[in-house]
Amino acid sequence: MSVESTLRADIVEVGRRMYARGYTASNDGNISVRLGTDRLLMTPKSVCKGFMTPDMMCITDLEGRKLQGDRDPSSEMLMHLEVYRQRPDVQAVVHAHPPTATGFAVAGIPLDRAVLAEVLTTLGSIPIAEYATPSTRELPDAVRQYIKAHDGMLLANHGALTVGGDLYAAYYKMETIEHFAKISLVARLLGRENLISREEVERLQGLRGTYGIQAPAPICAVPADSSPDDPASCQVVQAPSSPGSRLIPNIVRTAESGQDAEIRLTYRELSALIEDAVRNLR
Ligand SMILES: [Zn+2]
To answer: What are 68's strand-pairing partners?
Structure first.
């Protein structure tokens, strides 16, 4: 099979997986790969990614001019072109709307807390690119701020974007983001997230070199809840300093009160409170 035929089949397979996992609904999402040095192979506009065939793909140049294909290229082509322009190392781009990660994007909550060692070593942080009208010039402009230093990001009130050295690497990063979003959501529902300390984050950054993990920028650990440094040169994660312990309890705070949200009562204390409340009602 030629390289082009293999890539066409890979796009079909990745589209099928994205749809099967619920990362896209209807005709959402888009996928592209580099075809040699000066062309791109891309999903077409208005097709369900779960039911594509290899012949549906479009070939464009790096300016987005269609060179081959019966259908028009993806409506988010401008965003893909911007990524390839900014990142010569990137071979593939995946965009989808995985529901939990997109929930964080809608809530305006970036996935940038130091929580899971494997996410830190692979993606570092997952910032949110600011809201832009889909398919317009605004979207590539919003993505440009983060794409030099990040292989994955959320798109405010829209979805997620991942890139990689090949198509499966880009797709697996989309899986990682959605998986991480689910775990973060569960931890926050439980009322507590233990954060990995800054010192441990620095150790994990060192492991990237040991294991040959490619990343476009180093991780920069900042104190929890502080504002990011330079998103163009650094993967900023929130990690409190603690030379003594590697995990730091972080109680989730409610937006309304700013107070600690976790309340722990024994069964006996809870029963007494309820009895008091019932007595006061009489
Ligand atoms: Zn989209």
So the answer is: 59
Strand bridging mode 152-155 / 128-129: parallel
Query: Which residues lie below 8 Å from residue 249, measured CB to CB, with a gap of 6+?
Result: 192, 194
Beta bridge partners, 113, equal 238
> Distance, CA 229 to ligand 1 centroid (Å)?
28
Each residue of 69-79: pLDDT tens digit?
A: 999 999 999 99
- The pair of structure tokens assigned to 179 is 């998986």
- With a threshold of 0.85, does the pTM exceed it? yes
Distance 1 CA to ligand 1 centre (A): 31
CA distance 237 to 231: 11
What is the 5 CA–ligand 1 centroid distance (Å)? 26
Distance in angstroms (rounded) separating the CA atoms of residues 96 and 25: 9
**Long-range contacts of range 229-233, CB-CB < 8 Å, 24 or more positions apart?**
231/127, 231/145, 231/146, 231/149, 231/150, 232/145, 232/146, 232/148, 232/149, 233/148, 233/149
pLDDT in tens, 72-127: 999 999 999 999 999 999 999 999 999 999 999 999 999 999 999 999 999 999 99
CA of 44 relative to ligand 1 center, distance in Å: 13
Given a contact cutoff of 8 angstroms between Cβ atoms, the answer to whether 21 and 160 are in contact is no
